[in-house]
Amino acid sequence: MTDTPTQLFIGGAWVDASDGATMPVDDPATGEILCHVADAGPKDAALAEEAAVRAQQEWARTAPRVRSEILRRAYEIIIERTDELAHLMTSEMGKPLAEARGEVAYAAEFFRWFSEEAVRIDGGLATLPDGRNRMLLSRRPVGPCLLITPWNFPLAMGTRKIGPAVAAGCTMVLKPAPQTPLSSLALAAILKEAGLPDGVLNVVTTSRAGEVCEPLLRGGRIRKLSFTGSTAVGQLLLAQSAHAVVRTSMELGGNAPFVVFEDADLDKAVDGAMVAKMRNMGEACTAANRFFVHRSVAEEFGRRLAERMGALVVGPGTRDGVDVGPLIDRTGRAKVEELVADAVERGAQVLVGGRTPEGPGCFYPPTVLADVDPASRLMGTEIFGPVAAILTFDDEDEVIRRANDTPWGLVGYVFTEGLDRALRVSERLEVGMVGLNTGLVSNPAAPFGGVKQSGLGREGGRVGIDEFLEYQYLAVPVS
User: Fold this and answer.
1) How far apart are the C-alpha atoms of 375 and 380, rounded to whole Å?
2) What residue stretches are annotated with the Aldehyde dehydrogenase domain (predicted)?
């Protein structure tokens, strides 16, 4: 850990918190402290904001090709340091090294993708219908941004926000989750090495999120907020953003339905379930929470899924052969324990798992519950753990109604071999993304986001850069 920055990154310099405060970074596999990092306060946030505002005008004028090449160099550095970054990520948040390496590749791809989008920002010229004026459309950066990232994908959620901001010509203040600050600090060091000018990216690590973020949102100089996290926090940030009419992008919670019809290929369905449920130990907003399985195949699906889940190896993510690492902290594990206990009390059958192991760390075993009561608490919340809850259904209209009976609408998964049904059900699901016979929808080239209380806007894809650009219309008289 000695080579990893632990200070704040403001104006291109590594600095301590102004009051000298630090906060610990824990290893969730052992409960031990890995290191301490600077714990920013409001004064530090104001300095970071000032650095971003000061750099904005010149950065906005920087040639798109220059911005593109900086992102491309950063992409190459990340790929070169895959193992180093994977070990860092595993240490601070627990995911197995194989998954961490996968996230490094995923994170890097956002930089490569937006390095290509940086040179494709266009406008338009047209004569207006009355023939009196020409309409000249140009696109310009929205301005300094506040980026708030979660702990579950600490590197990829950083690049998914930083990439389009850099490409669009926006400066940034990045506030990573307090559980996983090291990945973001390492990313800042890589971007500096890649040639990002001082002040374009500033990183404030803090345990005092409210004190740090609210003044930035209310002050009027931050013009864009991009947040990934819980719906409850997102609602609070939206309220704070309203004061200065800050433009917002929100990637919030999910409660994904996983629907298996009677004609589904069960091999595909179980494979998809393993990905949709167990990616990142189930600590993902895209995680399948509610498994709706047609009554005729529910028993067989449950048996196969329990067999696969029970075969997974639980342990520290740095250990060879481990499939499932620890949950992020004891609070997260306690939530999972309580949700499972409630479901069992209501009559759910435990097909595998369901008992917290003894010993250090925040481990919880892969768990499959069958015959789950729809009134169980885990049906109405993000589980954020390795728990698959199976419910049965009898007809299509019924399962669509139940799948949509949630305030969230991020992603849904549908398994069927019938093309008409696949399209029909996908169109009726109230979600922003659908995995059709697949358990993985995330891709830097695709627009990621949800509907209802799962958020506003999209990240990634051709439209991802739009969140960081404004249109300007210039009326030019026709001579």
Assistant:
1) 8
2) 14-472
* Residue 251 annotated among the catalytic residues of the structure: yes
Same domain, 317 and 461: no
Strand order in the sheet with 8-10: 13-15, 8-10, 201-203, 172-175, 145-148, 224-228, 247-251, 455-456
Which residue among 103, 251, 382, 459 is the active-site one?
Answer: 251
**b/e code 172-193 from CB counts within 10 Å (16+ = b):** bbbbbbbbbbbbbbbbbbbbbe
Q: What is the reported pTM?
A: 0.97
Give me the amino acid identity at 353. Answer: G
Read off the amino acid at residue 178. P
pLDDT > 70: what percent of the chain? 100
pLDDT of 1 = 46
Range of the domain at 80: 8-252+454-475
Is the pLDDT at 159 greater than 80? The verdict is: yes
Q: Same domain, yes or no, for 411 and 424?
A: yes
Q: What is the pLDDT of residues 266-287, one digit of tens each?
A: 999 999 999 999 999 999 999 9
Beta bridge partners of 13: 10
Contact 415, 272 (CB under 8 A): yes
Pair 160, 264 in one domain: no
139 occurs within a structural domain: yes
Asked whether the predicted pLDDT for residue 479 surpasses 90, the reply is no
Domain CATH code at residue 328: 3.40.309.10
pLDDT digits (tens, 9 = 90+) for 214-230: 999 999 999 999 999 99
